[in-house]
Every structure is written in C-alpha cells, then in structure tokens.
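Cross-posted from the bioinformatics board.
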Amino acid sequence: MPWTLLRAKFREARICLSAGRVTLSYPYAPAAPAPGFRGLPAVDASRCIGCGGCASVCTPDLISVADDGPRARFTWALARCTYCGRCAEVCPEEAVAMSAEFETATGEVRDLTMVVDIFMGSCNRCGRCYRTQTPLDPPHPRPHHQARVEAICERYRPVATAAPPGTEVAS
Amino acid sequence: MSETSALLSTLGSHLGGKLLERSRLEASGALVATVAPNDLRDAARFIHESLDARFVISVGTDCRPMGQGFRVDHIFSQDRRRTWMVLRAFTGADDPKVPSITPEIRAAAWAEREFQDLLGIEAEGHPDPRRLVLADDWPASLHPLRRDVPYDIHPEPAVGQAQPLAPPPGDSVTVPIGPFFPVLEEPVFLKVFADGEEVVGLDYRGFFNHRGIEKLGDSKLTYNEVPFVAERICGICGFVHSTAYAQALENAVGAEVPLRARYIRSVVLELERIHSHLLWLGIAGHILGFDTVLMQTWRMREPVMWLMERITGNRKSYGMNLVGGVRRDIPANEHPEIVRVIERIEKEWLKIIEAVLEDTTLLMRLSKVGVLSTLDARELGSVGPTARGSNRPIDVRIDHPYAAYDRIPVHGIWKDTCDAAGRTLVRLEETLESIREVKQLLAEMPDGPIMRTFDEALPPGREGISAVEAPRGEVIHYVMTGDDARPYRWRVRAPTYANLQALGASLKGMRIADVPITLGSMDPCFSCTERMQVVDVRSGLVRVYSQRELHEMVRAGSGRGGAR
Amino acid sequence: MNATTVVVLKAVAYLALVLFASPLLEGVMRKVKAIVHSRKGPPITQPYLDLAKLLVKEDVVSEPGPVARFAPPAAFACVLASAFFVPFGVSAPAGSAGDLFVFVYLVTLSTSCVMAAGLAQSSPFSHLGSSREMMMLITAEAVIVISLLGVAVGGHGALLSALAVSGFRWSSLVGLCCYLLAMQALLGKLPFDIPEAEQELMEGPFIEYSGPSLALFKWTFYMKQLVFGSLFFNLFVGWPRATGGSVVGGLLNFAVNFFAVVVLSLVVVLIDATNPRLRIDQSVRFFGGLIAVAALGVGLAALGW
C-alpha cells in the first residue's frame, strides 16, 4: 500500500511539473480576447437610422429613446450591459457592433453612458419628423437615396406614378 | 405513446370519477391529470408508489386572471417510460389551500413551502410549514408571484416575524458553517450540531441568493429576453437553463427546432459539462486542503473556457440560445480545434484518474463519507451524480431525450458505493463520456439552418415542460405562454434544490471534518437553487432526526471521547 | 578571540538567523508550492511583507484577557528560546545550559500556549482547533520526543550538541523516518495541518487573533521549520564537517547546515503539495502506530543498534 501511494504521488507530481507555469502577465501585458468576443457595444452613428430595434430587444432595457424635435437621442446606460449582443444582431444597418472592449470597470457611471444623437430628417413641406423609407417598404418610383435627399414626408410624397422629380402631387 | 396511454388509464382506473380531466402535452411528453384538491394526496401517493414515479417539483400558479383561482401542479417523472406526469388541482381564489403531499412524499417538502411563500397557497398538514424562501422581514401577507404584485415592489420591512432556529440537542455544540465560510462560494447557513467531532444534528437556512428571476420571467421579460436571464441563474452551468427554457417554450407551441441547432446545443451542453466537472474536482480538492488538485484541474479547464469564448463570444454566458434555435453556428472549420482541445484534456484527465484511484490519502477522505443510501436518494428526490453515485440509474439524456441525445448513444454511469467517492468517480467518468459524445456530435452534425422562423405570434395558454441533464443533475423548466410575447408562468427547478434536501441524511453520523466535503460532493450550486427576491433570509429546518434518534446518537457519541 | 565573545557572536548569529532567515525559508517553500501548482506564486520576500503588515495593525481580539495578551508572545518566545539549544552545524550557544528535555519542554510549552489561546476565545472553531492541537500534541509530538530519546539512548547522553551523528545505526534510521513524518505535523503542513485547517475550521485556534498577535503565531511556525529542520540534520544525518574550531570552519558548517535545512524544507513542501488533509481520527491512528515504531527505535538504541 505505501508503494502504490508513493507511485500515485509521483504521478501527480509529474502531471504538475510537466505543465510548467501558466500564469499570464496580464495586466502587465495586454490580453486581447478572441475574435467574435462580445465586449462593449460600439455604435457607428453615421449608419444609425434611429429605428429603435436595439432598444426594443435589449434585455436590461438600457437604451432609452427620447425625441427632441428633429433629433432622436439614444442614451445607452452601458453600466447595465450584459454583453448579450442582441442590439448588434437586430440592427438593420449594422450600426452596432460588439467591440473587444472588456476593461470597463470605472468609478464614474458617466464613462459608461453613451449618447447617440441622430438627426431625423424633417419634411421639407410640413417640418415634422417622418419615417424615411427603407428597403423593406413597397418600392418607390424614385430611388431610395433621392427620396431621402428630397426629404418629404409620406403625406406629401408622390405615390407610384411616373411623375418627374420635383412635382408636387397631392395624396 | 401507447406507454403513456397505459399510464393514464391505470391512473384513471385507480381514481375513477375523481379524475376530473386528463390531457397531454404532446411535444413535452407529459400527461396532465386534474383532480380535486382533496384527492391530491391519494393520487400523489399512487403515482409515487404504484406507478414508481419520481417526484420532480411543484408549480404554483396564479390563474385568477383567467377565472380559475390558484393552481397547483405536482410534476413527477416516469423515467422508465420517458414521461412526465403532472398532477393538477385548482383551488379557490380566496384563501387558497391544498392538502400537503409531503407526509407521503418527503421530496416535496421544499416545493410546497415555496408555493406557500410565493403564492400564498397553504399546504395543509405540511410537517414543517415554516418560511423557506422569503426574507425574515418580507411582509407575510405579500406573495410576490401573484399576478397583482408588481415585480419591482419594495415593501416596508415587517418586524417580529423571525422564527427562532432549533437549539442544539443535548450537550452538543453549534458549529456554524456560513453564511460566510471559506469553502462556500455562495452564502448558505448550515447550523451543525456537534458532540466533539461528531455531527448529531443539522439546521439549514438558505435562499440568500434569491433574485426574483421567476417573477421577472412572467412580468417584464419577453420570450427572447428570458434566455439571457436564464443563463445567469447559474455561475457555471448557465447554458442548461437557457436551453431548458427554450425547449420548454418550443415544446409548448410545438415548434420544431432545426436539427443542426439541436446538435449545436448538445455540443455546447457537453462542453459545459466537461468544464463544470473539472471545476468540481478542483473545488473538492480545495475543500480537502489539496490545493494542488485545484490549481491543476483549473489549469486543464482553461482551454475549454478559451474555446467557448471563441465559439460563443464569452467564456461562460454563451448567449447562444433563442427560442427556435441558436444564434451562432459552429462551422466545420472550427471542429478540428474543438476536438484538439478536448483530446488534450482527455489525455491529462486519464492520468489524473489513474493517480486519483491509487491515492489512498485522497480516497481516505472520500470513502464512506457522506453516505446516501439508494432508498434515501429515491425518497428525497436526488438527481444527477449525487443520485448516480448512490446507484440510482437516472439521467435525463436517457430518460427524457432532448436536443440531439436521441440520435447518439449516451452511456449512463452509476456507482453503488453511495458515498462521496462514488460521486467523484461518476463525475470523473462522465467527463470522459462527454468528450466522446462531443466528438461524435461534431462528426455527425448535419447541415442546415440553425434558427427557425416564426410566422405568427405564439398563442397564449400553451404549456411546455423540458428537462436538461446539467452537470449537477436534472434541471427542469416549465413555461406557460401568455400575452404580448411574454410567458404567463415560468418555473425553474435546478438540481441542487433537490440534492440539498438530502444533505441531512448524508451527514448522519459523520464528523465535522466531513461536512464540507459531503456538501461539496453534491456539487452544490446555490445560485441555481434560489431564484427569487431579496436578501437576509430564513429558510427552514431540515428535519433530520427524530427526538429519539438524536438522543440515541448523543448517548452513543458520549462514549467515544473527543476533547469537548 | 576569547570564548565569551564567540558565544555572544554565536548567540547574535542564531538570533538573526532564526528571526530573519525563517521568513525567507517560508517564502522559498511557498514559491516551490507555486511551481507545483503551475503558477507564478508570490515573491520569496512575501512572508516579510505579511509579518510587517500584521505587526502594524491593530491587535483586535474578541475575548481580551491575560491569555489572549500573553499566549502569542509566549509561544513565540518559547520556540525562539528552544533554538538556542539546537546545534546548527556548530554547537548551540546555550548547548551546555540545557539538554534534550529542556528543548522538548520549550516546544511543548509553545504548543500549549497555542492551545490555550484557542480555548480562551469563544468561537466553536477555535475550540475545535485547540482540541485537535491537543490530539496532535499527544501523538505527533510524542513521536518526536521518542525519536529524540532514541538518539539520546544511543548516544548515551542528553545534551543535544553532543549527539551529533557518528556513523550509521539502525535505531537512527528508524528515528529518522518517525521524526520526518511527525515533523510534517508539527510544522502544520499537509497532510497534517489539521488544527489550522482553513477549509474546515477557518484557521482553528488562530481564528480570533489579528495584527501583532497573529504575526507572532505565524512567525512561531516559520521558526519551527528552521529549528526542527536543523535538529534533524544534526541528530539523524551525518555529513563531513570542518573540525578544528576555526571561525571559517564554523561558518562553513553553519552555511552547509542552512543549505541542508533548505533542502529538507523542499521535501516538506513537496509532501505538503501532493497530499490532502487527513481527518484528526485518521491522523491519530497513524501517529499512534508511529509511536510504537519510535519506541522500537529506542529499544534498538538500547541494544546498541
């Protein structure tokens, strides 16, 4: 019995010593996470269309939407983020991506509050904000980007006829 | 399903006219038998004894908005026949009460106290009806899971409700283990009564980690938000919860999940089991003072965590499940990497097993420690390696196959030593089996979509049950669909909830030094067990011994010496 | 250089060594344990930092009283004093003033102070720890004492300095094995660190002590490593020594002795790192058996073997 015990201890010691040292130098050396890692969400505001899809799927409800005239303000309380990545998943414009940022500890909540201000186009006719057409809507006679440049809300937007650009058509 | 028809008709002929209604939850493999409250005890006894069904959990639901009063479901498992049996009764909206089934079925003790606390349905005749879940200062008249109680209510603390704990019997001394104690990663209070080094009694107080998850699930969260909360029920085995929930909901509405998604779920579940068992061996070693085992097993485990980060985007909160499938694929070019990682672990794991089996000093601390007889394991509803180490041949992957487990062979592993050593060996060998299963699943994974689409909103009022074999045992989720894309009721029972109730039986006659390793050998996950509101809790007495037994023990112990 | 100066210098050297080299020895042991654990571990100066930190903290204890006040320094002083009787490659400074029995009394007194310290507090964990300490005292320490007795019988005397090894003896071999195993327990190392089991008793007798008192307890254990290790080498293991009484020779012997103690400590830590903790009843049974073996060693010594 003592012999088998000693042999067991030898085997255990061999497992330990052949592994070598595994301590990483982090934080004295950087440790980049794997690609595909879900870190802090990052928003490319130039691509955001203010649809609010991110806000509606966010489990901790950290994205709040406020309208202020022509401006839509998205306030992200990222301190509550659980890094699930649903916002990035549902964004139709790929404006949200999960970055590799994981060193998010801070004593200031401010550091983790992100505000995205989107200027929502207002109708050149009536001045109110309106929902721009998206590729999912029924096709418009004019190309999508031209309709955006025209900035006319649906009330004044021409219906599907072959009218030349710039013409007003009452609905 | 002729097996299940046979079961229903046996039950029907026993109950006769008392069987008010019978129905099936087809996709869940469940039978629902409705009786009047007064017939609950008799029916439960019949199902437990004559039909040899294992008690699983009870679900209390507030059905007053639907005009049905309160509803109590006792869920049993007919493991041999792959069937769940739900024994259902409705009781009045005012002063709801049902006869307690605990006098017949010891395993139901906590489940009934839980619906008593959270829904206010009184379990009449319960041998120990004290508060289990809610805090001492939570008002007695406020039952959080009732539909009319908001999820974010902050009531004024109530005073004078605290119940005194049991005093130590005879001459024994109280050794308090917890709420803060070096071997516990989570708070729990084990009041151990000791005569010298010998344990003569036990009092348990838990539910410090109750977080309001079931309440969130049936009020605030939508169907697809629940998996992300579910995977945070546990700090180690989150994926079993998000999978069980998703499957329960999918069963409820009869939604078929694409095959590839089912394979992916199985692969992730087995990888989770591998890292959980490696973690467990480390904890067991640490409890025994053998820190080298802790360090080395956790070193071996790291590659799996990195692998999961690569596959899912996070080391532990995989976020893979949605209702209807999985969010990320495991493409074929990632398979060799997975196989490489687990094969390396397998090589080292075999060396560890070889060393452990011959390490007499280690086995001395595990053999004949925390003995849980096969009968006790059955009566107290133990599951997982805790039960399998006591020769109970139950494993959800075999008994109620889910995901891809009906497509690959699963070899159940059980031991008959009924002690901590048996449970250890079960987990050691299960890890090897998991490694084998992952390789087979990857090799046979079919192509196809990983997420199904839903053409229309999910109808309300549908019920589904799903169980998953977590590393610690059977996890079961029950879902009833509701309006506005939210569940009406979501019930979770984690394996440690069942296993903890057997702690007293397994500590009988043990020494103080064995208490931590006995608890550790059940691989307790208190966060899994406790899922509702606030802090500073009272639990109840785990009535371990009768007065007579205690006196006998103290008399026997006093002749044995010990310094105090 | 007259005899008095030599003795005084020796005493100072001993004091310096036992006080200030023992934490370094502990640091080396922790580093070796870390290597076995595949991790980097703390720097070898960590015990100095630990002691320094504790010494400047407030001395809070839940049941203050004379025992709580004096037990820690008493335990510390006893082990420190016992070092002066132990040869360290050179003869001990107080070597002619006290013999084996004085040494044993001092060490046992130190353990009793630890026990008293635990009993003076009201935590059930410290009482359990003290009761386990008592059981270790009557088993493991008994083995040490009997092994030393065997050497004394074989060397026909009790003065430790006079008992340096001279050639192989069977009784010495038996005593060596018993002493080594029991030393593991006295140093509070696995598989026998039972009285202070962190995972079971939250440090046992020390649980209620903090600050300087705790520092003194820890230091006591560090010093014990040096003392018992050195005793082992001088009484059970022989090696070529510089003779002739020269200062250089003395220093050489001193250094070799220290090196030998370090090597022994490595063995101690390797056993510690590859074992779980035993239960007190298992340990008592083990040492009970070892007492019989050690007694056999005494018998062999009496027979001249």
